[in-house]
Amino acid sequence: MLNVSALRSSFAAYPSNRFTGPTWAWRRSVLREQTGQNATCVSCARHAALTAKRDSCPWRPSSILKLQSPKRTAMTARSASSPANRDLLSTSSSRVPPAAQELVEFINSSWTSYHATATTARKLEAAGFVRLNERDEWNLIPGGKYFFTRNMSSIVAFAVGAKYVPGNGIHIIGAHTDSPCPKLKPVSSITKSGFLEVGVQTYGGGLWHTWFDRDLSVAGKVVLRRGKESGRLSQELVQVDRPILRIPTLAIHLDRNVNTEGFRPNVEAHLAPILATAIKGELGFGLTASCPSENDQDSAWHEKEKKPAHHPLLLAVLAEELDCDADEIVDFELEVCDVQPSVIGGAALEFIYSGRLDNLASAFCALKALLEAGGDGSLEEESGVRMIAMFDNEEVGSGSVIGAGGTVLADAINRIIRILCSNSREEGIFERSMRNSFLVSADMAHALHPNYADKHESNHAPKLHAGLVIKHNANQRYATNAVTATLFRECASRSGIPTQDFVVRNDMGCGSTIGPILSANLGIRTVDVGVPQLSMHSVREMCGTEDIDICYRHFTSFFENFAAVSSDCNDIDF
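-> structure tokens emitted (574 positions)
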């Protein structure tokens, strides 16, 4: 039997200031002699294989102090078998809603707006939705399910009710696929003080200090010319799963006032991630992919200065990931991404810790609701159109061809109505359809922060696990009004789902959403809602697992019940 006390005494009697060198080797030999097959290195990731491979296990001081003696093992077993502990832990794990776990998987496969759109498209196709192309003629029929993408980063999907009647409404949930992040500059190559850095420009209103000291990589869309002689261009998605970038903070010894005056980085001077040391970059460390030659005419080279627009090492990493030659890379749109995956967390497994919750959580819930609301035959009784629209560029104002301020949704609705109503000679079909339609503008909401409770208006402080947040603003930063809020609450009420309300304090500015933009452009009734979250626009955000389930169920109820709810208020002028 292992005598832990004696073992510790023998260590204490042997003078040493470090756990390295001969002293540490001696301690390991003593440890192995006395522990035999019974030792467990609790701080080593390979402790399960310790019995077979203990010679290769990197023993640490913390491991010795936590050796599992028979007494400790018995105590651990009693604790684990305690009915109260067992019930608490099993209850917590069993209560993680499936929708929350599905969201985690969705986000982990959606590093960029391009990847989120591709993931959404795959799920739609698997559910029987037909892919359309905006450049082709469409053939739509009642009972059909369709989708299309624009620029690989915005997507619109819709299901036509089998009993569709010309002039009936379109019930839409709108969200966005983009999140604040650093994006690579067109000429990103920076060499400074013996390091290779990547030049970036900030996209959206990120909490940029949270990107420091994170394990980072790149993902996005690459324009390729595979087989240089062919001349044909293609677009492919790339996601480098391993950490290749980092933005290190300055040591406190060189910035003594950082804790009193705050960390205030200059995003132009301080946000460039380190790719490699210059010497390793010159050697092409660990990579075999060929790099562009100086005679290459594509944009991987900066024409004015005849030097690479991007570090050859970065191009080699991309080429290795894409299984192509580096000189086949013509151009790209890449984002800097945090490689840490989205997870379920909290002692009671009630939180989601993740990047890009704003706004992939809303996009996912809208997608899941559309798929499941139409999967039980309910389309057979539907007389309208159910739709989800996920836009890019919301974080920078939506004013683009792929944003909510562009024509993507108006173009889609126009084509749908023209095709489905091609045999109708009734006046004002489009205008009637718009006035019978309803838009749920879904974007994340600010939950009450326990350490900054004074940042919320006291009567409008949304909480986690308490329902979707209906957003109001007298200055029309949100599109909600009394009627649209009532209709949305009624959809929740019919499924027993809670809601809560939010207004910003009068002494604070208010953000906005796609809601006011689409409402004004289309003349469509709109409500602004969102899942409550903490740490919005941080590289790692946080929300509740129950809120994802509530959001998905609320959106499903909207698709299934809105036609009936709306018919009860036909006499209201709105």
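The longest strand covers residues 181-192.
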